Amino acid sequence: MTEPSRGAAAPRPQSASVTQMTEYVLPQHTNALGGVFGGQIMAWIDLCAAICAQRHSGRMAVTAFVDDLAFEQPVRVGEVVRLEARVTATFRTSMEIEVVVQGEDATTGRRWPCVTARVTFVAIDAERRPTPIPALLLDTDEVKASQAAGETRRAERLSTRR
Ligand SMILES: CC(C)(COP(=O)(O)OP(=O)(O)OC[C@H]1O[C@@H](n2cnc3c(N)ncnc32)[C@H](O)[C@@H]1OP(=O)(O)O)[C@@H](O)C(=O)NCCC(=O)NCCS
Which CATH number, 3.10.129.10, 3.30.470.20, 3.40.50.150, 1.10.8.50, labels domain 14-159? Predict the structure, then answer.
């Protein structure tokens, strides 16, 4: 597992950058079947993850890679899209952010899974060059396991990098 300290700022807890967004589905967000466009959900995922990445790194951050997305159940007009992003692993200048997206019927409180995304962000400096970020604080067994799993996924991503 990656050592937590690499010369950047002190390690930061996962909880410090957890980011939640709530969106109400309007007709302009939907396709002909009345469900949210996949591309709209992807845009919200990117925004939610970007805020999380900036909160963790204290830097501007750009999207470098998006893992496969599988949409499980639709969210329709008049329903709510809930997004929650957290840093699941950090590397030298990049970080893996997981975004869990749920649908919600605000009138009943019922929630259902929509999609889970993993996005890699790279922190950049004023010259737009990749710049080191604080490590994730490995303060619980869950976060340690998350970092280890993220390192395995990163190796797979980079093995296919062009
Ligand atoms: C992402 C970007 C900054 C990487 O720049 P680069 O010159 O390739 O930099 P490096 O090779 O030094 O890589 C920097 C980091 O990005 C990571 N990275 C780059 N491509 C990656 C990929 N396809 N998957 C996962 N990580 C990737 C590297 O592993 C490295 O991480 P590390 O420092 O934690 O080890 C650059 O490709 C870029 O600006 N892309 C466009 C970003 C963009 O416009 N996004 C959409 C709008 S926000």
Answer: 3.10.129.10
